[in-house]
Amino acid sequence: MKIVVLGASGLIGSKLVDLLHHNNHHIISASRSDGVNTVTREGLAEALVGAEVVIDVTKPQSFDDKTVLEFFETSGHNIVAAEIKAGIKHHVALSTVGIERMQASGFFRAKMAQEKLIRESSIPYTILRSTQFFEFLRGIANAATVEQVVFLSPALFQPIAADDVVATLAKISVSPPVKGILEVAGPERVSLAELVKRFLTRTHDPRTVAVDVNARYFGAILNDKSLTPEANPRIGSQSFEQWFSKSVHNN
């Protein structure tokens, strides 16, 4: 099966390409570094020739509200048009759990716009919404830091290892389209503030965490349902401790 991975040079994309190659699929790596740009359309049509499945794990270079919306709208339109021309049989997209509950955030509004384009296209699709990656805990802390204090909500979330997201995407890509949304999450539900504090402690980061129910998460105020999946998500295999031990060993 010929599968095109859009965004192949990123965290998820690079891992996904390696896994699908290992499973003996014909994989086309498609990213800006490969000469494929979904915004300008450079190399996009050529990358999709003869493919059956497209997996979209692209992301913008900047995350300000205007840029991220323009990216997902423009990229989404271009991808759909190229897929129709190429006769793609299955479009797989990675999205985020809870985006409809966090529309105060420009990023999540942009992801909702991306999903709308996918749903309204004629291409059979599967959208996989994931919870936050363990790999992004430092980035979450950095975005919430004022001087040496990290202001975070105590709201629950259910983070997951990137490897578990990749394994789920790989399975979905070789399965029939569900023409709907699936969710994947980690095995443990925990306070956002508490887990970031644990991560900073384990990595010897001197910053302190201040628990604040009004702290915004990329523009949105959270509650216990904001970042947690609905009933019956697919569950990853790695807990935070397992992931952290593995990441320390690998580094």
Helical percent range? Answer: 25-40%
N- to C-terminal distance = 34 Å
Q: What gyration radius follows from the Cα positions, in whole Å? A: 18 Å
Strand numbers in spatial order across the main sheet: 2-1-3-4-5-9-14
Strand runs, count: 14
Description:
By secondary structure, this protein is α/β, with parallel strands linked by helices. Helices cover 38% and strands 21% of the residues. The protein is built from eight helices and 14 strands. It has helices at residues 11-22, 44-48, 65-86, 106-120, 137-143, 162-173, 192-202, 240-250, and strands spanning 2-6, 26-30, 53-56, 90-96, 125-130, 145-146, 149-152, 156-157, 180-185, 190-191, 208-211, 216-217, 220-221, 234-235. Strands 2-1-3-4-5-9-14 form a seven-stranded parallel beta sheet, with helices on both faces. It has a three-stranded mixed beta sheet with strand order 6-7-11. A two-stranded antiparallel sheet has the order 8-10. Helix 1 (11-22) links the parallel strand 1 (2-6) and strand 2. Helix 1 crosses helix 6 (162-173), helix 3 runs parallel beside helix 4 (106-120) and helix 5 (137-143) crosses helix 7. It is globular. The two termini are 34 Å apart.
Which key terms come to mind for this protein?
251 residues, alpha/beta, seven-stranded parallel β-sheet, three-stranded mixed β-sheet, 38% helix, globular
Topology summary:
Layout: E1 2-6, H1 11-22, E2 26-30, H2 44-48, E3 53-56, H3 65-86, E4 90-96, H4 106-120, E5 125-130, H5 137-143, E6 145-146, E7 149-152, E8 156-157, H6 162-173, E9 180-185, E10 190-191, H7 192-202, E11 208-211, E12 216-217, E13 220-221, E14 234-235, H8 240-250
Parallel strand pairs: 1-2, 1-3, 3-4, 4-5, 5-9, 7-11, 9-14
Antiparallel strand pairs: 6-7, 8-10, 12-13
Helix pairs in contact: 1-6, 3-4, 5-7
